[in-house]
Design a protein that fits this description.
heterodimer, A: alpha/beta, 2 domains, 4-stranded parallel beta sheet, 36% helix, 39% strand, globular, B: mainly beta, 16-stranded parallel beta sheet, 14-stranded parallel beta sheet, 1 helix, flat
């Protein structure tokens, strides 16, 4: 006569295998919907962070720039050392934005809006300096150059 | 290490501002001397000692001379001179003395000394009124809680007031100068332990007003406060303030074209506060502030075309705060800020065509904040920020 403990163990293992198979099937059916839900929330959270930096993000920076230019032929040149947070709005024709960040390993936050013709944007810095970035150009003749060395 | 960092900060800001080098002028004032009496007409001499003495002198003609010496308490003198080349000299020492000189004519000289070489003066008042051209007025006071006042109406007049407070004199001294006419000059020098207050008003063209203040105690009542108001063109206004424990406060208002305003403030434990308002074209405003423990605050408002504003702020443990507001065309704003453990904050607002803004900030262990708003055509903004701290 076989050992009754072995029979019980085989029955429990078989039951667990069948249950796991069914569970895996349910997860496969809902994976796409669940991933889409969390992805949308994640993107929404990033969008909010770009527009309204949280207190923690601000405390991590040491340079803060807010620039608003309304008019034609505007020009902005920014040079920084250290982590930074920028909010730049250029509303007008022939705007120009140039940013150079040097000797910096702290991520930067950008929120830049260029609205007008012939905009130009250039960002130069070291690798991994950009954490949250939002650049919107609404115009013809747009140029966007970002180089991280 | 701290000195090295400060040196680097200064070097950084100097290098940054060199590319946009902008020179600030200074008030060029030519000090004059009291006139020497040339005897042609009347001479009057008054010496009095004790309490409640009063002297009245009235002279009319050319080359009159009045000399009054009073020593004691509650003494008073009044001198009236009408004519040319008159000289009035009043010396008072003691408690609660009063002296006033009234002159009408040309090239008159009024001099009042309270305290000075004969002791201290307390609660004293010295006043001078001059009508005519090329008059000079000198008023000097030692002690505390003294006040001096000069009124001049004419062209080419000169007024100088010197005050020094002593002892536990938290009441300090007050000085007032009013000048109406062209090419006038006013100079106010105040120093001592107590608080200083100076006020100058000039109405005309080509006037110059200079105020120098210094307090040298480490208590907060050693403050300096100076205000200059000018109405007309080509006027110059300069305020220099230095304190150790108290604050420096200054205000300059100019209405007219091609005016120039300069403020230099330095303090150890107090704070610096400067307000400049200019209404007209081609005006210039320069502010230099140096603070150690507290903070620097500067506000420049310019309404008109072609104006220039330059603000230099240096701090150690306090804050630097600059606000430049320019309303008009072709304006320029330069802001340079350096700090060690405090923060830098700059606000520039320009409304008009072809504006230019340059902001250089350096914070050793804190943050830089720059806010630039430009409304108009052809604007340019340059922001240079440097921070050694990740905070």
């Amino acid at each position: 006569m076989k050992n009754p403990h072995k029979i019980l163990l085989m029955f429990f293992t078989l039951s667990l295998t069948v249950f796991s198979g069914n569970a895996q099937g349910i997860t496969d059916e809902n994976t796409y919907i669940i991933n889409q839900y969390f992805q949308l929330n994640k993107e929404s959270s990033l969008f909010e962070n770009n527009n309204t930096p949280t207190t923690n993000n601000k405390q991590a920076q040491s340079n803060f720039v807010s620039l608003n230019q309304v008019g034609n032929n505007n020009q902005i040149d920014i040079k920084q050392k250290g982590g930074d947070s920028q909010t730049v709005n250029q509303l007008g024709n022939k705007n120009y934005y140039n940013f150079i960040n040097y000797y910096n390993n702290t991520p930067s936050n950008f929120n830049i809006l260029q609205q007008g013709n012939a905009n130009n944007l250039q960002i130069y810095g070291e690798n991994s300096i950009i954490n949250n970035i939002s650049i919107v150009q609404k115009s013809n003749f747009k140029t966007l150059i970002i180089k991280n060395y | 290490m701290k000195k090295l960092n400060l040196f680097l900060s200064v070097a950084f800001l100097c290098a940054s501002s060199l590319s946009f080098a902008q020179q600030c002028e200074d008030c060029d004032i030519v000090q004059k001397d009291a006139l020497v009496h040339v005897g042609m007409d009347n001479e009057s001499y008054v010496d009095s000692y004790g309490w409640y003495n009063w002297a009245d002198v009235n002279q009319t003609g050319l080359g009159n001379l009045s000399m009054i010496f009073q020593d004691g308490t509650y003494n008073g003198s009044s001198v009236y001179q009408y004519g040319y080349n008159n000289v009035a000299n009043v010396a008072q020492t003691g408690y609660d003395n009063y002296g006033h000189i009234n002159q009408s004519g040309l090239r008159n000289s009024a001099e009042q000394l309270q305290g000075q070489n004969w002791g201290w003066s307390y609660y004293g008042h010295a006043g001078a009124s001059q009508y005519g051209d090329d008059n000079v007025s000198f008023q000097s006071q030692d002690g505390y809680w003294n006040s001096a006042e000069v009124y001049q109406n004419g062209t080419g007049n000169y007024a100088e007031q010197n005050q020094e407070s002593t002892g536990y004199s938290w009441y300090g001294n007050n000085a007032y100068i009013s000048q109406y006419g062209d090419e006038n000059e006013s100079l106010q020098n105040q120093m001592g332990d107590g608080g200083n207050y100076a006020s100058s008003y000039q109405n005309g063209t080509g006037n110059t007003a200079v105020s120098n203040q210094e307090t040298y105690n480490y208590y907060d009542y050693g403050y300096n406060s100076s205000y200059i108001n000018q109405s007309g063109d080509n006027n110059l206004a300069c305020i220099n303030q230095m304190s150790y424990g108290g604050y420096n406060n200054s205000g300059i208002n100019q209405v007219g074209d091609e005016n120039f305003a300069s403020v230099q403030q330095a303090t150890d434990w107090g704070w610096n506060d400067s307000d400049i308002n200019q209404n007209g074209d081609l005006n210039e405003a320069c502010v230099t502030q140096n603070g150690y423990g507290a903070g620097n605050y500067s506000s420049v408002y310019q309404d008109g075309d072609g104006n220039m504003a330059m603000v230099n702020q240096w701090g150690d443990y306090g804050y630097n705060n600059s606000n430049v507001n320019q309303d008009g065309d072709s304006n320029r704003a330069y802001v340079n800020q350096g700090n060690y453990a405090g923060y830098n904050m700059s606000d520039v607002y320009q409304s008009g065509d072809y504006n230019y803004a340059s902001v250089n900030q350096n914070a050793e262990y804190y943050a830089n904040y720059s806010n630039v708003n430009q409304v108009g055509e052809g604007n340019s903004a340059y922001v240079n920020q440097n921070s050694y701290s990740p905070f």
